[in-house]
Structure formats: C-alpha cells, structure tokens
Amino acid sequence: MEPMSTPWLGPDEQRAWRGWVEVHARLNARIHRQLQEASGLSLADYAILVELTSERASDGSARMFELGERLAWEKSRVSKQVTRMEARGLVVRRHCPDDRRGSYVDLTDAGRAAIEAAAPAHVKLVREMFFDVVPHEDVLRLADLTTAVLARLDATD
C-alpha cells in the first residue's frame, strides 16, 4: 500500500497559518503580561474566572469537568489551577453530592472582585491590539471562520 501524499500548504495558506500562530502566541503573551502587571491574575486565572461569571455559570459555580471541557484543558491542569486559585481565595472547591469523585468550583467574593477589577483593562487591551486594527467586515468574516473551524473540530472529536 502506497502512502498518501500530503498536499503542502500554498504560499497564501502558509502566510495565513503562520500569521495566525504568531498572532495567537504574541497576543496571549501580551494579555498574560498585562493581567499580571495590572491585577496579579494569570491568563489561566482569568479564563477560569470568566467561565465562573459567564451565563453558563449564572450562580458562580461549575463542575470541574465542565471547566475542563469549556477551556479544552486536561483534568490535571484544571485541578492544579483551581488549587492555586483556592490558596489565593479566588475560588473554593466543594464535593458534588451526586458524584463522589466529582466536585464543584465556586466563585468567592474575592474572585468576583478580582475579575471585575481586571476586566476593564483586559477588554481595553483586546480592543487596542485586535479590534481597533481589524475592519468590522473582517471581524464578521473572522467570526464565521472560527465558527466553521470549531464546527469541524467538534465533528472530528
């Protein structure tokens, strides 16, 4: 049986892919630095706090496995991050009464205060570094593109 040949990326595809990879890495690094300097939160702290304050967690609580699924993190990463955040009083972990192995992560008042303090500067940076330089019609195209790629990822998981 002959191995399948892989069609290499063309010049436009290479430029788009490499650009996306670099933008993602550099934007995440910049956001992480800004969060650390302005609020003492890491990007991982912020991601969990966002999930606990989202519409999906209207009561400020989520199952550990749900956080992992939403953030596409391994179980151990979620657990270690929650442990670090517990030590700082941002969240508390409580056992799930229905599942002996499961637990909930609950937002504390300190966690809510931390994200409320960090969010304005975070949004300002995202707007300055991304949305202010991308025309609105391209934002719409990007939203369509990410929706299509996410649908493909969901279909192949």
Automatic annotation (TrEMBL):
Gene3D superfamilies tied to this protein: Winged helix-like DNA-binding domain superfamily/Winged helix DNA-binding domain
Annotated ranges, domain HTH marR-type: 1-151
SUPFAM superfamilies according to UniProt: Winged helix' DNA-binding domain (SSF46785)
GO biological process terms held by the UniProt record: response to stress
Pfam families reported in the protein's UniProt record: MarR_2
Molecular-function GO terms, alphabetical: DNA-binding transcription factor activity
InterPro entries named among the record's database cross-references: HTH_MarR-typ, MarR/SlyA-like, WH-like_DNA-bd_sf, WH_DNA-bd_sf
PANTHER family, per the entry: MARR FAMILY REGULATORY PROTEIN, TRANSCRIPTIONAL REGULATOR, MARR FAMILY
The protein's name: Winged helix-turn-helix transcriptional regulator
Organism: Nocardioides faecalis
